Amino acid sequence: MIGNQEKFVRRTFPKDAVLVEEGEQGDAAYIIVSGKVEIRKGRVGRNPQTLATRTRGDVIGEMALFDAKPHMASAVAVEETVVNSMPRDEFNRRLEAMDPAMRGIMKLMVARVREMADDLIKRKDEVNWADWRRKE
Known about the structure:
With 136 residues, the chain is α+β, with helices and mostly antiparallel strands.
């Protein structure tokens, strides 16, 4: 768990609840205390993809706090999930306390992860004509 807990708010999400919504601005990072969360891209689109499953000890929603861009994916509880929520102001306070070089590296890593995830989804949407088979 991350340091001083007094700035955290414990929240419980029922099964199928959306913790963060793709395309919306982030206002907190969530540390999973118990439960299971799926990270889904294109949740309401024509080609939804599950990118990952996160469980106890994992953090979700943090990327939108690093770069102030909308969430790149949704996080959906697949079972009742308890989290410790770190509000944006506390996250930013801790980020500003980091060594400036490390903070820059972290922001670069977030940008690369966003780019890779977008590229992966684009490739899955493309038709692969090499796999095309004529059905008779």
